[in-house]
Structures are given as C-alpha cells and as structure tokens.
Amino acid sequence: MTTVLISGSSVAGTALAYWLREQGLTPVVVERAPALRRGGQAVDVRGAALTVIRRMGLETAARALKNESKGMNVLDPEGNELMRSEEFALSSGAIGSEDVEILREDLVDLVHAKLDGVEYLYGDSITAIRDDADGTTVEFEHAAPRRFDLVVGADGLHSNTRRLAFGPEADYIHHLGTYLSVFSQDNFLGLDRWQTWFNDGANLGGCAMTVRDNSELRIFLGFGSDPIEYDHRDTEAQKALVAEHLTGFGWKVPEFLERMKTADDFYFDSMAQIKMDAWSAGRTVLLGDAAHCAAPLSGQGTSLALVGAYVLAFELGRTADHALAFARYERRMRPFAEANQELAHIDRTRVDPEVSTRRLDAVKNAIDLDALVD
C-alpha cells in the first residue's frame, strides 16, 4: 500500500489525509507543533470547496459552526463611521450567501475527527528527503529516519518541505506590502454578529469581528511595509512590530494593543503569495499555501486547500505513476489557483461590494470536480 508522508496538519494536510485514505493510500502526518494548532482567523469555504466538504459528510456540521454576521462598518482612526452595510461583510462576502465562514480550528477539528487510526508525528519536522528508485528516505528532527513512497508539503507559506525539495523561500515568495496579526479576546466590545473595520485610508488598520455566538472576538491588526526581516518563531518580537506601527491609532486600538500583549494564540505574518513553475520534484509535491499561497487578502486560501487535497488524492488514487498523478493534479489546479491569486489584488475596501462579490463568484467555482478524467 502506498505510504504518503504529509508535512503539516492544518486544513490542507488533514483534508489530504482524509481523501488519501478514501483512495486506499496510507497517510502519515508530521506536525512541528506539539498538537493541533489552535487560534487563527475565520476562514471561508466557498464554491467547489463546499462540494468537497459535502462529499466528506461535513457540510451539516460545518454549517452548525458557521460564523454568522449581520453586517459591518468601517471607522476612521478617531472612530468616526465611514460606511455601514448589512448586505456585505469584508471577511465573508454577501450576507446570506451559501458560503460557510468558520473558524480555522473548528474546520480542522471536524476533519481530524474522521482520521481515527491515522499516524501523527507531533513535535517533529522533516530535515532531509532523499529519493531513490523505490521510494524516499525521510529524516526527522527527532524521530528515526523512515521510508515512504511519497512526501507532500502542506506546511504553509513558509514551507519547510518546499525549502528542502525546491530551494530557498526567497525564490518563490512575492510580498504584497502588508503585514497582518490576529488574536482572540472575549467580546468586550459587546458586538452582535458584527464586523468593525478601521483604517487610516493608507496602510494602517484592522478589524474586530465576533465569533462563537458573540462570545469571542477575533482582532486583526495590520500595517503596510516593505519586507521585514524577523524571526518567525519569536512571538514577542512580532507583537512589538505590531505595536510599533499601530501606536497612535485612535478608537479602541490602544486597548487592542494592550490586550495583544497577553494573547496566547497570537499569529503574525506577511501578506504574500507563492508562485512556482512546478509544484512537484521527484517524489515530493506541494499542496495549498506551500504551492500557491494566494494570501488572506484573497479570501480563498482554505477553499484552495480543500479542493487541492481532493484533486491530489483523486489523482494519486487512480494511477501508480506518481509523476503522472502529480502532473494531472497540477494541470487541473494551476488555473484555479492563479485565478484566486488575482483576487488578492482587489482592494475590497475601495471597490463596490457588488463588484467584489461578482468577481469572487466568478472564481470560486472555476474548477469542475466531476471532470477529473483525461
């Protein structure tokens, strides 16, 4: 039976593990964190991705955890309202659409619950990948070397697998000029199924949005900047960067910055895209953000991960020739990924909501999951 090592246990990795088992392959997941990662933002499941979770038997459960929104408003740095809408929200699109906005951790939990028996290597990471005619030998930071038939990098924008198999991140990353942080707080603002965005009209701003039946907030703080050198594992240094750029912003931002200091699920990264000429090399293939990160500005990263996992598993399940399966996967996914990457270049705060929604609708179904035949 074909064994597949998956690096990364977020949406892409867990969904792929599910679909590989459905195709009769044996997945093993390695995850640097000591357990499934918590926190993160609300993510959107749209179009073809809804078909994927429906086929996983998760649509009803996902809708039960859906983040409901009545609408949004936008404030200036002093807290003056610039606009308000009860028909559209920047994070999730048209109010009342069939799309599912759900917390990333809730979606991962739903998929992970279907993976009983799948082997997980928590607290570890890949240090070397060596292919030969019969398979690949993988070395780990802690575990003993092991043999696998294939390796999948589903380990995000800063993919360790991509670095090992394809070379330095700098060869593939394209910064979009923005950095974003997100962390959780109780709903001390008393918002009711609402998103409040704030910006200075240039390069500073963020959002406070309700989640979990209004009991919590996800707070986003962002700033524009050229690429910054920083330690991706130094959370305190990242918090200092956010505070440095947002200090002086009015409204509730000073309190946000104070609460950020003790947030235990703080996340920070650049808004960037990954663009590659090929997503596979030998017995290694990339999936989701590792292959074609569209950036959170697109609103499509999770949908790309779900659809990509489905397509890759399907192609691996119908041929023993991994090179052919990888090529078919990339041929089907690349146009879909590139179309979604274009969405990140639309500034939704300055585009008519109806125009933005039409552009999103034109992309989210731009792949036919029932046409996976040559």
Helix content: 25-40%
Number of helical elements: 11
SS class: alpha/beta
Task: Provide the low-confidence segments as ranges.
Answer: none
Give the number of DSSP strands.
20
User: What strand order characterises the main sheet?
Assistant: 5-4-15-16-17-14-18
Describe the biggest sheet? 7 strands, mixed
Strand content is 25-35%
Shape: globular
Q: What average pLDDT do the residues reach?
A: 91
Distance between the termini: 25 Å
User: What value does the Rg take, in angstroms?
Assistant: 20 Å
Give the key terms.
single chain; 374 residues; alpha/beta; seven-stranded mixed sheet; six-stranded mixed sheet; 11 helices; globular
What's the arrangement of secondary structure elements?
Elements: E1 3-7, H1 11-22, E2 26-31, E3 42-45, H2 48-55, H3 59-64, E4 71-75, E5 81-85, E6 88-89, E7 93-94, E8 100-103, H4 104-112, E9 119-122, E10 126-132, E11 135-140, E12 146-148, E13 150-153, H5 160-166, E14 173-186, E15 194-199, E16 204-211, E17 216-224, H6 235-246, H7 253-260, E18 267-274, E19 280-281, E20 284-286, H8 289-292, H9 301-317, H10 322-343, H11 353-364
Helix pairs in contact: 1-4, 1-9, 2-9, 6-7, 9-10, 10-11
